[in-house]
Specification:
single chain; 789 residues; mainly beta; Maltoporin, Chain A; 2 domains; 22-stranded antiparallel beta barrel; 5 helices; 48 strands
């Protein structure tokens, strides 16, 4: 236990040092805030505000806003930005300062301004990291969730096991599952539960999605092996109400609400977000086997799924203070989420249809966020605590077939459930606590240093109300992760070089209580695994010409085991206290070309990636049960290309193509010769592509309010099992996929109300994202949206 105590003391000491350091900066300082705009009242991003007498400076954010701490007295602000005339402004910090300054364009540099003016998203893309930034505001009228948006991007492939709310596997450059970390506004979603995932999060609640592929900057503070997906919500200082409702095939209803009240005078806000999803998921499944009570196959049938209903809901309330002397932002949020998922069959097996088996989730979260920019020091701290309950209900004494017929009612002395050998009503409860402190100190406009300290804590306990022999987690187990990072960044005066180098320390501490297999009562075996690893990396971006960006990045990355990987879930997944962290050497080489040719905006992006990974954590099944093991060494390499052509914002065509070759590199598996050595890893696609087209056909007549969307996805076929051995024609394959989607959007003249319609899987193709697990056929939806600001 001493390592735990020492680490807690260490991180507590760091935290108090931060507070002391910040308080020294606060003392005697006055907060000056403002916004820099152009002559059309558009915020100017990255304008420099220099205090002449003190020789210090700051820059505006993506909203054109800045904040700086100054001593009492009179000072001169000099505001500069490329393409604009310099501007000087006198202030007196003895009175409250919240200023607005308008810059004038230099008339002889208008052409250059059009090229050099960059949004915050564009500036992010021009760093050395391989990042995709998706502006979801353009898609909020459509019937989409986060998963459906991500699937259209290069290097990302998402495979689902059914309809709304079904399990999914997201692959990023060939790596998948927990090798990818997920965030909301930079806060990790680790251990949030099944109610808050990408496949049920409505696009209306998101402003953008950031996708970092491979190398990850330290501000996320996560142990991502393959990359990071960060969902960003609205953060502007304005009041609004935005609500949408959609209805469609399979009795699918989806509601979303995003609202905010902002008091400009007193500088505080209330924010309320909510969503509700429901679907019967009663789409047709073809060629399912029909059994009798003796287990004999009596034939096959095409049937509608009868036990696949899904519903989920979330309610989040947030209160925040902005632009105060003690904080730029101080916010507190409460979130409640729940879901219920009826399972028609095991995730990868249609031979055992269920009629009662279900899972439920309840998630309660409290979070706080603090941001403050001092003279040069910038601090961002967040805290999340909560309780997550996952309930597995396998209490039925009946067996069903695919025709929704009860083929057996078990005797009272037969304790079998639909899935497990003994009927079970198991509740798994996690108490979680996550904290993060990120500090950035720019020495000047060329050099800065940043530090990030992350602590994740989880306590897991369980109880089975039906099966008295299931004593999993009756004695709680705990898992703690500490990730400490430091980074140095350099940017030259001409913005032609962007370089970053960083190091990360990963540590895992656990206290795992296991039932003694030789004692059937209460004996406990206590295990305390302890891992510590050092990772490092660097990124470089060069801008030799205004239209060209070249990138190079590398990271020695680690991923610590997840809670249920090392602890198990108490029912179908047993613990593995010997599980080791995954390791990967991640390389990226990329290029971006952005060019305006007459009325056309052209963007081309290409990225070559290489991932040399060891100690892959994979689920080792034994029927419907099993545990996680370190099974494979894997080499992933590939290339992704994307191009977009935008004509006057009237028509936009984009396409992306991904090819990846992922092979097993371990010659032996647990001392046994690996028959698939140097062969492709099973059950992972090799080639896939997307084509997306949007057109405003009546641009002049309808004042830019009607848009048609068309998207096509193609995925080549790939082997279910290992590539080596046997005749190729005799192997099971996941067939190639070709699907089309059509959307029509119309925004009414007052721009408060919109209506849209969607048709997915337009040609009603038979889609199998997992072996023999059929996805929904053709489906149609209509969506209404109302928004006021």
């Amino acid at each position: 236990m001493f390592p735990i105590i020492n680490n807690i003391k260490s991180n507590t000491t760091i935290f108090y040092l931060i507070l002391v350091f910040c308080s020294l900066h606060i003392y005697g300082q006055k907060s000056t805030t403002g916004v820099i705009i152009d002559q059309t009242s558009t915020p100017i991003v990255d304008a420099t505000i220099e205090i002449i007498e003190l020789n210090i400076a700051t820059k505006t954010d993506e909203d054109g806003k800045f904040s700086i701490e100054l001593p009492s007295g009179e000072w001169t602000l000099k505001i500069t930005h490329f393409g604009y005339e310099n501007h000087s402004y006198k202030i007196n910090t003895n009175s409250k300062q919240n200023i607005q300054i308008q810059l004038k364009k230099r008339t002889n540099q208008l052409a250059e301004v059009a090229i050099k003016g960059k949004t915050a998203a564009k500036r992010q893309k021009e760093t050395g990291f391989n990042i995709e930034i998706i502006n979801t505001k353009e898609l909020q009228n459509l019937t989409l969730d986060a998963n459906q948006v991500l699937k259209t991007k290069s290097g990302i492939n998402i495979r689902e096991s059914g309809g709304l709310g079904s399990g999914f596997n997201l692959s990023l450059n060939g790596l998948s599952g927990n090798q990818i970390r997920y965030f909301i506004d930079g806060v990790p979603m680790e251990n949030y539960g099944s109610s808050l995932t990408l496949n049920n999060y409505p696009i209306l609640l998101l402003e953008s999605i950031e996708v970092y592929k491979g190398v990850v900057p330290i501000n996320f503070g996560g142990d991502a092996l393959a990359g990071v997906i960060n969902m960003k919500t609205e953060n502007k200082k304005e009041s609004f109400l935005d609500a949408s409702y959609s209805y469609g095939s399979f009795n699918t209803s989806r509601f979303a609400l995003s609202s905010k009240y902002y008091n400009k005078e007193n500088q505080y806000y209330f924010k309320l977000n909510s969503f509700y999803n429901y679907s019967d998921n009663n789409f047709k499944t073809d060629n399912v086997p029909v059994f009798d009570a003796l287990g004999n196959i009596t034939g096959t049938a095409s049937v509608k799924r009868f036990h696949d209903q899904y519903k989920s809901a979330m309610l989040s309330g947030e209160f925040g203070l902005v632009d105060k002397s003690f904080a730029d932002i101080l916010s507190f949020k409460l979130t409640y989420a729940q879901n219920k998922k009826n399972l028609q069959h095991p995730e990868f097996n249609i031979l055992r249809p269920f009629g009662a088996f279900n899972t439920r989730n309840n998630t309660y979260l409290f979070s706080a966020n603090y941001k403050k920019a001092f003279q040069k020091l910038r601090i961002n701290a967040n805290l999340v605590g909560g309780r997550v309950q996952e309930i597995i209900d396998d209490t039925s004494d009946k067996r069903y077939n695919w025709l929704n017929e009860v083929i057996e009612t078990r005797d009272p002395d037969d304790f079998k459930g639909e899935l497990f050998e003994r009927r079970s009503l198991f509740t798994l409860q996690d108490i979680l606590f996550n904290s993060q402190v990120y500090i950035k100190y720019p020495f000047n406009k060329n050099h800065d240093l940043s530090v990030n300290v992350v602590h994740n804590y989880l306590k897991r306990k369980g109880n089975d109300a039906v099966d008295e022999l299931n004593r999993a987690f009756k004695t709680p187990s705990t898992l703690q992760k500490y990730i400490t990072s430091i980074a140095y960044t350099f940017k030259d005066n001409n913005e032609k070089i962007d370089f970053s180098a960083f190091a990360k320390r990963y540590q895992l501490l656990a206290s795992i209580s296991l039932n003694d297999p030789l004692d059937n009562v209460d004996a406990i075996i206590l295990s305390e695994p302890n891992y510590s690893k050092i990772g490092y990396g660097a990124s470089l971006a060069l801008h030799p010409f205004r239209f060209l960006t070249t990138k190079l990045s590398y990271e020695k990355a680690y991923r610590l085991p997840e809670s249920y990987e090392i602890l198990g879930n108490g029912v179908s997944q047993s613990p593995n206290i010997r599980l080791k962290p995954e390791t990967s050497d991640n390389f990226n080489i990329g290029v971006i070309i952005q060019k305006n040719i007459s009325n056309v905006e052209l963007e081309y992006e290409s990225n070559i990636f290489l991932r040399k990974s060891t100690d892959f954590i994979r689920f080792s099944p034994q029927g419907p049960f099993g545990n996680y093991e370190n099974l494979q060494d894997v080499l992933s390499r590939g290339i992704e290309n994307s191009i977009s052509i935008d004509y006057k914002k009237i028509a936009k065509l984009s396409t992306n193509v991904t090819y990846q070759n992922i092979t097993e590199e371990n010659q032996f598996n647990e001392g046994v010769l690996n028959s698939n050595y140097k062969g492709k890893v099973a059950n992972i696609p090799t080639f896939f592509m997307n084509i997306n087209l949007s057109v405003k056909p009546f641009y002049k007549k309808f004042d830019n309010r009607c848009t048609l969307y068309w998207s096509t996805y193609f995925g080549d076929d790939f082997y279910l099992a290992e590539e080596n051995g046997g005749a190729s024609g005799e192997k099971n394959t996941i067939p190639s996929q070709l699907t089309h989607r059509f959307d029509l959007e119309y925004i009414f003249k007052n721009k408060k109300f919109s209506i849209s319609g969607s048709v997915t899987n337009l040609t009603d193709a038979k889609v199998y994202d997992n072996f023999r697990i059929q996805n929904p056929g053709r489906a149609a939806y209509i969506k209404l949206r109302y928004s006021i600001k």
